[in-house]
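Suppose you are handed a protein chain with no further information: no name, no annotation, nothing but its sequence. What can you learn? This example shows the usual starting point.
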Amino acid sequence: MGNSYAGQLRTTRFEEVLHNSIEASLRSNTVVPRPVFSQLYLEAEQPPLHSAGRVENEEEEDGSESNSPLIPYQMKPPPEGCCTTDGFCQAGRDLRLASLASEPLNVAPGFLLVGAKSPSAPDTLLVCAVDCRFLPDERGRNALLGFSGNCMGCGEKGFRYFTEFSNHINLKLSTQPKKQKHLKYHLYKDSQGLLVRGAAICWKGLETRGRQTAPNTSDSHVISDEHLLNPAVTAHPGHPPGSYTAGAPVGPIGQPYLADLRPPLTNGSHTPLSQNPLPHTAVLSNGPGRPTVIGTLNAGPPKKRHKGWSPESSAVKTPPASSTSSSSLTNVAKPDHAPPESVSQGSSNPHSPPGPSVTVPDQLLHTCRLQPVIFRGHGSLPQLSGKVCDVQVSSLLQSCYQNSQALPRVYQHYGPSPIQPLSVEMQILLTVYYLVQLGPDQVPLIQDLEQIFMRSWRESHLREIRQHQQPQSGLSLPQASSTLPGLPQAQALTPSQLPWLAQLAASSCGEGVVVLEEKASMALGLAGTFTRLMEGRLAHTNYVVIICTAKGRETESCVVVTGKHQCRILVEGMFSPTDSLREISQQLSSGMTQELTAFCNSLGPDGDVDVLLGSVARESRSHPPPLSSSQESTGDSSPRVRQTDRATCSPKEPATDRHTGSPKDRAESHKDSCSEYCVEWREVRPIQLAVARKLLSHVCAIADSSTQNLDLGSFDRVHFLICVPPSEVTFQQTVLHLWNSGVLQQLGLEQECLSQREAEHYVVKMDQEARARIDDLIQEAHRNSNTLYILVHDHAHWDISSGPYGASGGDSGGGLVDSLLNSLQIRDATNILTLHVTSFPFALQTQHTRISPYNEIHWPSAFNNDMDLYHEKTRYFGVSELLDSTRSGSGLPLLRYDSSFESMASVLEERFPKLHSAVIRTQVLVQHYCVALMAVSGRPGSGGRSIHKHTSVETLEIVQSLLSSAQRCPTHHGHMVLLRIPSLALAGWAHQRLAWVRQRLGLGERFEIILGNPSQALSIGQSFTERIKTWLKIQETDWVPRTYLELEALPCILILSGADPLGESLPRSLKYCDLRVISSSYLQRTSLEEELGLAAYLMRVESQGSQPLRHVPGPGSDLSESDRDKHSSTDNEEEGRENALKSELPGLGHFPPPHPHSAPQTLRPFSDSSAAANLHLHTTPPDPLHSSQSPNPNPSDTQRWPSKSTSSDSSSTLPPSSLQSCSWARGVSRPPSVLLPRALYDIITPFDESGLPRCTSFLPHLSVAWASSFRPLLSKMMTCTEQSLYYRQWTIPRPCHMDSSNRPAEGRTDNFHPRRLLLSGPPQVGKTGAYLQFLGILSRMLIRLMEVDIYDEEEINTSDQLECVQYHPACAPWPIIDTLRGMPFDYTIHNPKYEDISTVYCPDYYPNTDGNPRRKEDVYLRRRTTRTKLSKYAAYNTYHHCEQCHQYTGFNPGYQMYESLLHGFTFSHLLLGEEIQLYFIIPKSKQHHFSFSQPGGQLESMRLPLTSDWNPDCIKSPIFTPTTGRHEHGLFNLYHAMDGAAHLHILVIKEYEMAVYKKYWPNHIMLVLPTVFNGAGIGAAHFLIKELSYHNLGLERRHRLEGGGPPADVWPFIIVSDDSCVMWNAVDLDSHSATGPVERNVSLKQVLQHMEACPDLTQYGLCGIRKWGSCSPGQGKGGGARHKEPFSRGHLHDFLLLNVDLTQDVQYNENRFMCDDVDFNLRAHSAGLLICRFNNFSVMKKQIAIGGYRTFIIKTKITDVPTSIQPSQYICAPDSKHPFLATPAQLLLERYLQHTSQRLFPLSARNYTHPILSVDCYLNLGPEVTVCFVSSRPHSINISTAELLFSGLLLCFCDSFVTPGFLKKFHFLKGAILCVICADRSSLRQTVVRLELEDEWRFRLSDEFQTANAKEDRPLFFLTGKHI
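A reasonable first move is to predict its three-dimensional structure. Written in structure tokens, the prediction is:
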């Protein structure tokens, strides 16, 4: 079929092809695998690739070349004149081994001699030198791609391509040159010094990546190799070619290699694969000795990956079958209380049926030095007897089998399913395949196997699944399966075939996996296994699979784990974490560790540690204290120490120790200052404020939701309690943050909390004492319903055990959180809000979670570029960045393991099988630190260089950095080393041991050793406390550090104990995070990320015009102190590390490798280069002579030190001053390095196919379980919210989980707590500061909710010249109508909102020009406001919710949304010229206010009360509120303002806003204006309100008349109120202060009822109240008389009581946009109507910046985008080509007159005595012009104008009442300006003629204008003229 591998199976045995076909069909990605007979007999003919006589060894040497056709290759012709003789290079030098055997050869460091074969001279080996990094190790693994070689003949170096090199050595190839094919053997010197041929180079593993095991001709026969790979032994798929892989094994001399993308999967055999005696064929091998385990490579990478092949391709991704396993060892490590994947810790099986028992040998553990683990499989396990404690039995595999059987149930909802699950035989066979592909050090991960089952079943039945999901007519599934012979092969495996197929698969891995077939019973198989174990026949076997296929019975199976490493890990994983710690403590207390301790203390020939330390102590007593390790030394001190010493001194000064001498001298030196030291953990970062605001918005969302679960408006203060885990350091750390945050002051608690100690009252540790504190809070919350209590549960993932489980004997303290925070009292308290805060929310996100997904707040992610929005000066470096560092193409990864330590620990684990691995690893680790301290201290008698081999390079480097860092700073700032030891007993022992060694070495003042016990307070030495006090400038004598944060820059080793970290924050001086002792058995995402989160780091980044770098510099780019001696790898022997020093140490990520002495690219650029050098010094030049000529007592270091001097002998450009810079200051820009156990490193560092770290796919927590194995994978593209939804769908709480009892009620799908929030963010990112800021801004918001910004302005246009006449007594409740008529009308406008309009001329008023008038530029500035507290009688917007007004607003959760009906109403008006169609939206609850022709029929009228009616709980006047654009912010909730009184409230809205107003105010009546008024102003709304009310009054009077009553009894008043009226006040006449009467808040009900009760009210045309101002009613400039007068006549605004009967002849101007109320007031007064203002009442107006009738945007007709248009462009000449505006003509006219009237009326500017005469209309002509209003109506009331000379005349739409005779009554200045405004040009001319204006006014054609409107928009026209 076009496949290059076609036809190869024709020479293969039938049974092997059959086995391979079954396997391929099971694992195939395609629908129809090829049948076996097609593979055998129907393949296309193709010539054989190799001759039949070729020996097997040759086939193996050729590797993958034997499986691929020859590629024609044409060699490049050699250069002219060069040598082309075989065996010679092109320079003519001999390369043959026979010729060079005795010649001295100069081999470059890092290169190996190899023998190359030439096809033209097959018997001759050519000697070549090849870089060892590009050669495989003895297992055929870890060779870098590419080539680097030197010619051993002519000496030419630097060949970078094998093609080039093969040409140079004259290989004369006819095929593509490949190093794997032509580099054959290692060469070495024998005992005679001759160069001879050695072992063959094992290229097998490298060739595995390109080979297809099943050499079929169709892609349908193969599937991806991704099914068989396990990430614990697989290199990372994301590596680009040439990149280093942390943790890669090393070659023969320890040089690190590049791990190949698909390294071979070790099979457990200790024999090199190339020498495996088992026969290997192309059918069963994926390389030498590799079986086809689960599948074959479908589309593997080509041999040269750099030629266009992307490692991201799907065929080579990390397998989901293994890398996406969520539980890993977690499944093995589950305790008994974790069904369904529980582990039986007992060795016997009490539930087994009676039958033959199997006796466990007595000496099994002693003889085999292991405790076998038996995994139950299919069937029942025989009863075990004998010494059953030596065997562990687990049901985990059995549960896995049962889960895979349940997979097809996923499809049951489609109907009856013909799809069958995997058969028992297929499950067993897949299990064997999985075990075979495991490496010798790998442990089986049960969910990996479960994923394999799931994928195998899914792929085998892909066609059936698709057909079942999408049934096709005419084709049934049985027919389909019968026509596709490859499909049912998954179920074709019979019990008789199973044993030999399993044995066939196991044979490929030697003795690694043994399959035992038993025909009789399982008991015989187990007995035989025990026998083999006792006889030592399973020494190299890791797994024994026992298969029982007795006739007539179901196939039974079990797996016995016999590998030492696997058994130890599995057995330890069967204990819960608590049981493991208990076991460790018991081993320590019982003395079981004495032999181990003695063994570790022994250094072999180098002596004993304790003896050496004793000699050091004696030397210290007999000699003066030695100089520090940074001194010049000539003895046994290491060159590394000397080089560090030279670096600490200035080049111009001799190398002296500034701290030499007594401790007193050293203490005095502490007074030196370090300018680079700063503590930043007190700062509040912008992102913390942003997260706090997100929290606040979620709280507001709860309050604003329709559920009414939180009424923020009812709270007046905030109280809080922070619950933290029972860690004293975490407790003090939270108290410290609280005290420094200022939250206590913001909440008004500073009086109650005067010291940091008193701040502890607001933080509680979740121990048994917490119960009383939380009970007190519940009681306090019950008493104070107006206080909102925030219960912050920090570190919320710590204790999630259910209360009953904890009470029944769970972990100590388990279930306490559940019993306290999930109690009914907290759940039902409406004023308690619970905030869970955690870095690992996964365990709280289950199917039964109490937290709504809408109440989750996630920390902004840097991957979404969210951080750029907050101008953050720090960059977070967390777990994902740590894992990314392992994939960086260069540099030393921050996350790594220590191979030397792992080797020593493995040896001791085999030697002491009964001891827990944590005990052994802790002993080894502490011993390493002790030896490293001895080596670095330089003390005489401490062993010197000879003891270096007894510690690891990593530990040596950590200790050296710790000791030398403080010497670089004048104040001894240094680094912290974190040593994580979970066991309290082991941590205590380690602390005691290290402290003893430190004391023996005399290093007590150099660094501190701190034991971090969660239950104890922090304790450090007094001298170190004094040092910290000096740094922090603390004066208190009794101050001691209580948190790790306060240890900033203190050189110390912190031994952090406890089963889990409990939220302790670490200082930024943390440089090394040593996690080599943490357990590898409990692999849950929470526990893993919690441990790795200890190294999380906030780095300061100050980008100046540059993008933040994606990766941060690692240790390789910060070569301070011993860092410049840091090695480029930590995963192999020391020699490999030391060899790597000859190359530069590049940084992480995409940073280019810096020069050893050049400043690397950091995240903190400086404009001043010297400042950058001082803060980021990376290396100092050592003395080259001193470095190269120093004596080297250790022969193994002959290569190390010259390589260092070679890399550092160039001159440095750094200034000398930088050599004294602070080491701590350089370190704070670099995250800490993390050391992990090798097993853990191999499991978590691979990335799955989606690009996520593998640990993200682990089970989230021990207390949860996967809901189904048939689940999708987490995706890298998932946000935090999507991950939350993933866990909510696919995880269920176990019975021990506190949410397991949170079952939804009947008929509900969830049971979320309405007042519970979850804040999640990565560890150490600043969540504590965020929620503390949230508490502060929540308190401010509650205060703000109780306050409102109201306008507070003094009245304008006041004058001292007013006569102080008292018309009414100050205490008069109502006006006397006759007295009121005798009062003068005040034409002057005093409302400050009209400060920018024209003054109305009043004879009694003269403007005050001597005062300090408001500047013109201030007029348009923001109006003055003040903030005041809302009273209980305030009006509210839609954000207010309380229980009292639920029904009023229509959002009562107990009812459906209020149903409303739309009713039409038609009436006619002469001014409009046509009938008006209005619509009422009337809720059913308000229909009683209206009359209908019949129930549900035509709307007839709005019912009005009678004048004689009176009800103390009712308001008679309907309230109309015109509004636009304020559906959310308008103050329409009058329930509290009315004090519960019944009233009729109607919102007057525009038609296009009808839907949104109805949505927000469903229980309000709405009057919808006609469509033609959508663009109209406030005048139209007022006009329709008044005219509709008058029309309705007539209808009601008619009904009254029809009912037999007098029509005059109908109430004629309405209220027109602005939508921003918030509160009402009344002058308290009974109480007077020194400054005058006092105002108090009253209800609107009281104000209206008082006004409605006014005597003779029906004789008033208009009543109103004054606008509130902060000036006392009895004070105010010029306003004293007016305020003392309780009633006055003048302009009314904002809140009117309108008599629609008396004002029937005075209409609002429907065209007006501005000042329509001023115009209406003037016309109403001129009509003789009585206007009264009640001065004892005032209205407060809220500042609402949104919406309103004054917000109109003027824009052009061409585009809708608002543009800047000058007022002069609002008009144009008629018929001119002027850009038209899409704005109403009336608005353009009003705006034009307002802004340009001083040019239009030049004589009127600032001329109060010569105003402009305005007839029948008031228009705003700007603040500099005065307008005199007169009415032309007969019998109208006007001011006397006989002596006035007017500076202009304004005639606007004058009617027939304006006559020439009327105008001739007035006198004008010469040059006065006339302005005539009409609707069209014709009316304009008619008006001029009718009024005979041309007699006294001169007009020009150029003086005619129109508004800038198009013709269809009906522009307005006006004509100007000048008085003659």
